[in-house]
Each structure stands twice: as structure tokens, then as C-alpha cells.
Amino acid sequence: MTDTVTTPTPEPGGALTPAPGPGAVVAPTPGPGGDGPTPETGGTALAPESRGTAPGAAPDAAAPSPAHPRRSYAKLAADESREDYSLRYAPHSFRRWSPGTVAGTALGGIAYLADFAIGASIVFTYGFGSGLASILTAATLIFLTGIPIARACATYGLDMDLITRGAGFGYFGSTLTSLIYASFTFIFFALEGSIMAQAMHQAVGLPVEIGYLITTLIVIPIVFRGMGALAKVQAWTQPVWIIGMVLPFVVLAFEAPDAWGAFASFGGTEGAGAGFSWIGFGLGTGVALSLIAQIGEQADYLRFMPARTEATKRRWNLAVLAAGPGWVVIGAAKQLGGAFLAFVALEAVGKTHALEPIAPQIEALKPWLGTFALPAAALFVIVSQVKINVTNAYSGSLSWSNFFSRVTHRHPGRVWYIFLNLAIALTLMEMNMFAALNKLLGFYSNVGIAWITAVAADLVINKRAGWSPPYIEFKRAYLYAVNPAGFGAMVIASTVSILAFFGVFGTYAQAFSTFIAAGLALALCPLIAWATGGRYYLARPNTVNGPAAGTVDERATHTCAECETAYELPDIADCPVRSGPVCSLCCSLDATCGDACRKSPEAAGPVLMPVPTVPTVPAVSGAAPGA
Asked: pTM for this structure?
């Protein structure tokens, strides 16, 4: 079912309805199930007054004409308690959670055990010395690039795709990165699902092929309900996960106290040796850097962070740091811990099973739990994989929504794309992608790091140098289709690094292909922005809530002339075709306007905009990521 244009008749069951009458004040109202506000809670209807009125213009020019019926969205797309503002700015009225709750939910999503498998694979292949250096170096790069991205997402209430649009890629330029991000979610869903299926096979003898199907289906009811359900699942399962994570290491500390010393001398299973090797270091870092796009999944939660105030500044900063780039600190520890558990279990279970997290977990618990080690380990693995795969499926649905809304100008609702993402992941599981782990992740990391580094370079360098606007503009109405600064940097960097990955430039370039990707993206993004004078960031000034508007209260609302629903100012554009305000999603889905506003802004002339409705709450203004 897709969005359609209908007469202004309210849809039953949660579809968008016209906003309240002039002057009305709407308190945030929980959506179905109490998970979040409905779309109408973004603000109030508009008062009839106007500003910037052109000579001879009617006071109500922003309202849809009788000849132009309002847009009405499909039921699932209209229900923001399910939709979670998947294609738009997350309004302040929806950000009801505390910084600690948002951070806890975001960190709950990194419970995955792929870190165990990745760490074990790196150390088994390249030895302890090179493996340790690889894991720590990758963690450092991921942490540094994640800081500005996390702060921008939390400050502006935007997900990774919307941040990418405004951080040097342009409206259609970021379409490619939506596919990159979507591939990250289904690759890692398949990896995590494989680990869960292995645990089910060990525990009850369930064939892994059936296990793949069960691991896929089990997350659907949770992801369908959105952020509210995800927050509850992460909170309820956290105690079980913490106990399961810590207990094996406690057991080994008592039962095998010399194991860490022996691990430090481990030369791997491929004859690499325990010492340091530059080739092994480069290749191992490339595998570990495949996780760099995880910041996108963290951002999907961070966009619900409440506004930072003087009273909450320290708590807010700590929560954003922990839930944003801070995930990789835990992630690196898990990679080393997973490699250690696999090393201890290697002799008992063999190389193949040692790389599957369930087997080392069982071996570590046996001295204390005996026959209960198997069910205990299986429970831990299943809980861990559910925690991460609900996040993978959720983030994938957001990414596919962004991609298809721009390509097709249709949006049936985020929840439908859950099934697309899961179908691809299930196919990868059935193809046994787990067996090609290192090669797959090593290749993917070349593209992922070029994308993330280019975005970080824009936020840190270009914005401070004045080549990029001081805020994040994500709306189609103000963006060029492609911005060569970020998009060009990513394409060049990833192309060169992929050629290096396949050995075109020799052995050392092959090993360090991800470093080539990061270095080129970091240098080219500012260079191109400087060379073009930053002209491809904004097609025209944003007079609604951009710098040209002066100081504005972000909580103030306009009613969209297309769907007749009130949204906060950051989600609104002034549309010359509709002669008034339109929300970002209606703007994205319009296939008839011909992009008149940005292709010929002078010819379009000034747009009559009503006075926004200002809520009776403290003003909130946007801030630059480094503020």
C-alpha cells in the first residue's frame, strides 16, 4: 500500500488527520500501545496570520486549494508510534526519553557476538601481536570518526542518512550511502543470525537451516512496534546479557589463570607467528574496520536524545559519547575476549567450532556449571543475538525507506521494509556467509570507511572552515542532487581502495586498502569543498529555520499544505509550488513539482508563509555539532 492523494477525510485506525483549529495547543499524546506520540503531536495548527506577504497575496495562501486535495498516507506510514519518524526529523515532542534511557537502549544493541567471531578470526589468522594491534587501531579510528557524527545526530534529531545528505553528499548523493548502510544491516543480521542458529543446533539439535528461519522471524514483532518496544527489550534483557558476558571470564580467572599468558604467545592457526607483521596488521585492521558503519545504528537511537540544556549538559554529553563512539570500547574488549575464549577452547573443539561463539562459551562454563553449561551458554547467545538483530532489522528498515522514497516517490511505511531486509539476510545465511567472514568484511570496510570518514571530515573540518553550512540541512527543497565534496570523496576513495584490496597496487597496498580509503576521504572532502567554495551544499537559503531565519524556536510548528499535519520548524520547507509550508516527507514524495524551488529559486519568488504556532514551552534552538 502506498501514499496517495485523497480528499481531506480522516483515515480510521491511526492515519493522519487534519491538525486542530487555529490557536489550539496539543499536548503530546501517546500513540497506539503507548509507544510514542501520533503525528499530530508535533505541534499545533497554524494561526491565520501571515508573514512576508507578497503584494496582493491572500492571507490564507499557504492552505491547500480546493482543487488540490491533501496527501493521505497509508495507515502504517501515518502511525508514528510504529514509523518512528523514519524519513524525517525526530521532533522534540517525540523525544520523551531521558539521556540515560536513550544511551542504555543504544548500548543494548551492541550485545552482539559477531565481535567474538571477528576477534577470534583475526587472531587465529594473523597471530596475537598483529591481531591486538589491528583491533586497537581500528577501535581508535572508529571512536574518532564517531564523535562528531554522534553529536550531530543527537543535536539535530536526525538519523545517519539525513546527516549524510547535509554533510557533503546532497539529496540523491546520499542514496548510494543508504544502500551501503542497508547492506551493513543485512550482512550483520545474517552473521548474528548464523551465530544464533549455531547455538540452537548445539542446544537442541535443530538443523541450522531451520534455525536461520527462526532467528529471522523472531525479531519481526519487536521491530514492528518501533523504538518503544526496542527500548523495553534492551532494558529487560540487559541483566541476563551482563551475567552471561562476564561469567566465562570469571570462571577462567579461577580455573585457568595462566591462559592469558599463553594467549599472548599464540601465533595463530595459519602459521603467522605471535610477533608483529605489517601485512597481518593491515589486513586485520581492515576486517575490524568493517564495523565502522555501526555508528549508523547508534545514530538511529541517538536521534531521540532530548535537547541539551544547561542543567543536563554534562549528562547529555556523557550519554552521547557513551552511546555513540563509546560502543567501540566495549566492542574492542569483546573482540579480544572472544579471541581469548576461542584460544582456550581450540584444543577441545577444533578450529572451525572455536570460531563459533557458542562452543568457546560452553567450554569456559563447564568447570563450574557442568551439564548446565550448554543451556546457559545457549540462553546467553540467543539473548545476545535477539538484542542486536532487532537493531539490525530496525536500522535496515529505516535505510531502505530512505532509499526507496527518493527513487520511487512512494512510502508505504517503514515496517514493510523490515521484510525486504530480513529476506536478504536469510538468503545470506542459507548461503553460509559465515564461512567467508574475513573476505566479506574486509571488502565491505573499504566502502564503509570511505563514507563515514567523508561525513566526519565535513562535520569537523568543512563546517569549522566555513565551506559547509553551520547546521545540517536534510530537506530536498534546499539541497543540490549531488554534492561533490562528500559524494565525490567517497566514490574516489572507495574505488581506489577496492582496487588496492584486489591487489592492483601490490601486496602492501592490498593489506592497507582501508587506510587508503580513510586517508583519501579525509583529504578529498575538505579539498573538494574548498575548491568549489562550498557552493553545492545549499541550492537556496532556508528561511524557515536556517541561519537566514535568525533565532527561531524549533518547537514552533507549521501545518503542511500537503498533508495538513503540523510539524516542527526543522521539518518544514517553504514551497513555491504549494505556496506555503510543506513537511520534509511530502516534499520528498512529490513527483510533480519538478524541483522548481531549487532549480530556479529566483523565478519562484518569495513564498508566503503563515506565522508559526509557538508552543508554551522553553525555546529550543539548533546548535552546531561542536557546540
From this structure: 0.82
